[in-house]
Specification:
Elements: H1 3-18, H2 23-39, H3 47-55, H4 62-75, H5 78-90, H6 97-112, H7 115-132, H8 137-149, H9 158-167, H10 171-177, H11 179-200, H12 211-217, H13 222-236, H14 242-259, H15 265-299, H16 301-311, H17 316-330, H18 336-353, H19 358-373, H20 380-387, H21 396-418, H22 421-424
Helix pairs in contact: 1-2, 2-15, 3-15, 4-14, 4-15, 5-6, 6-7, 6-8, 6-11, 6-13, 7-8, 7-20, 8-20, 8-21, 9-18, 9-19, 11-21, 13-14, 15-18, 16-18, 17-19, 18-19, 19-21, 20-21
Function: Part of the tripartite ATP-independent periplasmic (TRAP) transport system.
Subcellular location: Cell inner membrane
GO cellular component, one term: plasma membrane
Length: 430
């Protein structure tokens, strides 16, 4: 197929998304029109088995379960108590509660799987307190927007499930691969907060909390830690599949909600409705992506692109550097899920053909999607934290506040490129 036609179809799909057409409709439309153009009406007969197969894939059962897990922890107040406990331990560091923002985002990310949910949850708890204490709103919004991105890097991650489903890679290995990069990126964010606070000469610090109170506060960190241990432990030791580990996490979360006395029908109804809404959107997009993949595979688009890139003489490192620029620009105009499902069918075969490890590439894609969450004009986390700020300032505070973290992510991606073992070592021992 002519590369011009491939490019035209890709940009037509992006154009439909940018003018507000639903992601699933845009992708399915391009896939169906392209398939009919190449094979005629009989192409439609091949779509039904694909849709049926996707909807019956056991792997995708984990998506609504992980979404429900995050909803339970959010609506039961566990996230609020978690923030208070971490503030007792991290508040004395240079930067004060800004460290608590990052720490809470990392811990909530270990049970949520959604960056937007992480930023919204921790932001709702943190921003009123930060505003009252006189913290810079720019620094506060930036730390929350960037901390929220950890939701799709620290496992469990819905976006890793989507990547694994589209590329037929192990979800367990992807989850395990995200642990070390997630912890390192969390540490780098906190290091930036401490360094910039000290350099400003006005480092905010919270009052010292007595040791006995800090120790008692640790009980509020037990629920997310136990849920994370159950989910990742069952995966790492091969006890459960991704869907089964998600179910175990939901059961554990229900136990903690029951223990807190918050288990009421109203709470469960809200959790179920929100889970159905989010999961339905994700699964529709995944189905549309598989329809597009069918057209891509039947028409030889991936092979044509792979041959074209190979003809350029790019090394694996050169390709990754080029893709960094590509995703950085694309992330300014597309949301995370759109970026994944629109580009992975093309970029994955090219990367693996040049010898890039598929698990490493999955973490790379997630990092690039994280960048998209905090780059304007379509950075979802920027809009989320701006929408819940207690004052009435402009969104430029969130944009400028998140900029240093975006630069840290770019440098961190280069570090992973130089030392790929940071990603591949842990899943290699499964």
């Amino acid at each position: 197929m002519n590369l011009f036609v491939i490019g035209l179809a890709f940009f037509a799909m992006l154009g439909m998304m940018l003018v507000g057409m639903p992601i699933a409709v845009s992708m399915a439309l391009v896939g169906i029109v392209g398939g009919i153009a190449a094979y005629g009406a009989p192409f439609m007969d091949s779509i039904a088995p694909v849709v049926w197969g996707v909807q019956n894939e056991n792997l995708l059962t984990s998506v609504p379960l992980f979404v429900l897990l995050g909803e339970l922890l959010l609506r039961s107040g566990i996230a609020d108590r978690m923030y208070i406990a971490l503030s007792a331990w991290l508040g004395r560091l240079p930067g004060g509660l800004l460290h608590t923002n990052i720490g809470s985002c990392a811990l909530f990310a270990a049970t949520s799987g959604s960056s937007v949910a992480t930023a919204a949850t921790v932001g709702t708890v943190a921003l009123p307190s930060l505003h009252r204490r006189g913290y810079s709103m720019r620094a506060s919004l930036g730390s929350l927007a960037a901390g929220g991105t950890l939701g799709i890097l620290i496992p469990p991650s819905v976006n890793m499930i989507v990547y694994g489903s589209l590329t037929n890679n192990s979800i367990g290995k992807l989850f395990i691969a995200g642990i070390i990069p997630g912890l390192l990126l969390t540490g780098l964010f906190m290091l930036w907060i401490a360094g910039s606070s000290l350099a400003s000469g006005n480092a905010m610090r919270e009052a010292k909390v007595p040791l006995d109170q800090r120790i008692r506060a640790l009980v509020h960190l037990v629920p997310p830690a136990v849920v994370f241990g159950i989910v990742m432990g069952s995966l790492y030791f091969g006890i459960a599949t991704a869907a089964e580990s998600a179910a175990l996490g939901v059961i554990a979360a229900l136990g903690f909600v029951l223990h807190s006395g918050k288990l009421r029908w109203e709470l469960m109804r809200n959790c179920f409705v929100s889970t159905a809404r989010v999961s339905g959107m994700i699964l529709l997009i995944v189905v549309a992506a598989f329809v597009l993949n069918l057209t891509v595979s039947l028409t030889g688009v991936a092979e044509a692109m792979t041959k074209w890139v190979s003809g350029l003489g790019l090394s694996a490192t050169g390709l990754i550097l080029a893709l960094m620029v590509f995703y950085l620009v694309l992330g300014m105009f597309m949301d995370v899920l759109s970026m994944q499902v629109a580009t992975i069918p093309i970029t994955y075969p090219i990367a693996t053909a040049l010898g890039v490890d598929p698990i490493w590439f999955g973490i790379f894609i997630v990092l690039m999607c994280e960048l998209g969450l905090i780059t304007p004009p379509v950075g979802m986390n920027l809009f989320v934290v701006h929408g819940i700020r207690p004052d009435k300032g402009g969104i430029e505070d969130a944009i400028w506040g998140a900029l240093p973290y975006a630069l840290i992510m770019i440098l961190f991606t280069l570090l992973l490129l130089a030392v790929p073992q940071l990603v591949t070592w842990l899943p290699g021992h499964m």
